[in-house]
C-alpha cells in the first residue's frame, strides 16, 4: 500500500468565487531547478493565472514564481509561460470544453505530490454578478443557521 504525500503550496480561492467549477485535472508542470526551489519555499502566486490549449499543448500563463534568492544567473522570468503535462486524452477533453462559449481553464492549486510539483487546473465557467451575490447570500445563510444550531445545542 502506498500513501500519497501531498503538501499544498498555493490555492486560488478567488477562482471558486469568480467561476463555476465543472471539473478538475491534475497536471505536471515543466520548471527549471531554481523555480522548483522557489515553489518549495512557497513563493508562488496563481491568483490571476489561466491556461490555454495551443497546438496540442496546455500552457499556463501569468503564474508568478518569485526568483530564487541564491539562483543568480539560473533564474528565469517570473511570469514566463509554462507547459503543463497532461495525457493526450485529457488535452482533447479540455479542447472540447474550452471551445464552448464561456469556459476557461483556471489553476486552483499548486502542490507537492511525492516530491513533484503538480498543478490542479479546473474547467470553469465565469459567474455573472448576480451569481456571485447569490453565492454570498447562500454562504451567509448557511453560516447563520450553523451558528443558531450551535447555540441551541449548547443549552
TrEMBL record:
Pfam families: SmpB. Belongs to the SmpB family. Required for rescue of stalled ribosomes mediated by trans-translation. Binds to transfer-messenger RNA (tmRNA), required for stable association of tmRNA with ribosomes. tmRNA and SmpB together mimic tRNA shape, replacing the anticodon stem-loop with SmpB. tmRNA is encoded by the ssrA gene; the 2 termini fold to resemble tRNA(Ala) and it encodes a 'tag peptide', a short internal open reading frame. During trans-translation Ala-aminoacylated tmRNA acts like a tRNA, entering the A-site of stalled ribosomes, displacing the stalled mRNA. It comes from the Bacteria. It is found in: Cytoplasm. CDD domains: SmpB (cd09294). NCBIfam families: PRK05422.1, smpB. The gene is smpB. Gene3D superfamilies: 2.40.280.10. PROSITE patterns: SSRP. Keywords: Cytoplasm, RNA-binding. GO terms for molecular function: RNA binding. It comes from Calorimonas adulescens. GO terms for biological process: trans-translation; trans-translation-dependent protein tagging. SUPFAM superfamilies: Small protein B (SmpB) (SSF74982). The keyword RNA-binding applies. This is SsrA-binding protein. One of its GO terms (cellular component) is cytosol. Coiled coil: none annotated.
